[in-house]
Amino acid sequence: MSFSAQVKEELCRIDAPRCCQLAECMGIALYCNTCSGSELRIITESVSFAQRLPELFKHTFNLSFDQLPDLSIPGKRSLIIQDPKKLRIIYDGFGFDLDRSVSLHLNRGLLEDDHCRAAFLRGVFLAGGSVTDPDKRYHLELVTSHRSVSREVYALLLDMDFSPKQTSRNGSSVLYFKQSNGIEDLLTTMGAPISAMHIMEAKVEKDLRNTVNRRVNCETANLTKVVDAAQEQVAAIEQLMRSQVWDTLPDKLRATAKLRCDNPEATLQELADLCQPPVTKSAINHRLRKLMGLAETV
């Protein structure tokens, strides 16, 4: 099951009072596949949503769908109402004037309370929303074919302190979120706190993984620098050993040179600890620089 399907399954477990049911139904109608004077058609792959719809419309409008899908058959499922009397009841409930035309708009009068706004957004997401698996990336979108409705929902989201982005795709209007915090807040508001928590956990895991990777990369880079520097030092010492300068070197420099050749992968601090008697890291670094400088003269 996809993450988006899990979110919808969680949302479909919510019981709400009638005012919220009406708001949710309006969200579904405005973001479903067809909402016209002759038909209300809701298409979904979510079994949970397909099961919720008949009960929701029965409680809200005391009516049934004219066509219901066979839930045992996988794929897209259509729930359809074409009866003019039923459509009039539904659109009257939303405040749409069916005698003139089905002018789709957001009836703010049904969304005065915060819980009704949350229910409306839940319906919007169930009918026209999707969210990407947070283990891959952060992206939630709400898609409708009605541009004016999308603008009104955008304004509603701004009023609720959300910050969606707007775009269009294949003739549809899209509101989307790409920041994990915004997606978490929206899911929590709609009634999916468990899914929001999953996004938080995925974000923590990503941050931890990125931190570990950065640390490993840093340590690898430092180790590479140490190895490269040690190889240069060994090459310079071997060049000195083949020259007459070697016999003229002080005992401390020759001892340091031998120590470096015997321990080509040791850090400066490790070489300093191996000296007898032990010396400071600064002292061993000074001696190796001295050897490197002498090698350039031979």
What does this structure look like?
It is a single chain. The chain is α+β, with helices and mostly antiparallel strands and 298 residues long. It has two domains: 3-201, Homing endonucleases (Endonuclease I-creI); 219-295, no CATH class. It contains eleven helices and seven strands. The strands form two sheets. The chain has a four-stranded antiparallel β-sheet. A three-stranded antiparallel β-sheet has the order 1-2-3, with helices on one face. It starts with a helix and ends with a helix. The model has no long low-confidence stretch (mean pLDDT 90).
Mean pLDDT: 90
**Oligomeric state as shown:** single chain
Tally of discrete structural domains: 2
| Helical content band | 55-70%
DSSP strand content: 5-15%
Rough outline: rod-shaped
User: Which spans of ≥5 residues are poorly predicted at pLDDT below 50?
Assistant: none
Do you know the CATH architecture of the largest domain? Roll
Number of helices: 11
Largest sheet: spatial strand order: 4-5-7-6
Q: CATH superfamily of the largest domain, please?
A: Homing endonucleases
- Per CATH, the class of the largest domain reads Alpha Beta
Could you say what the CATH topology of the largest domain is called?
Endonuclease I-creI
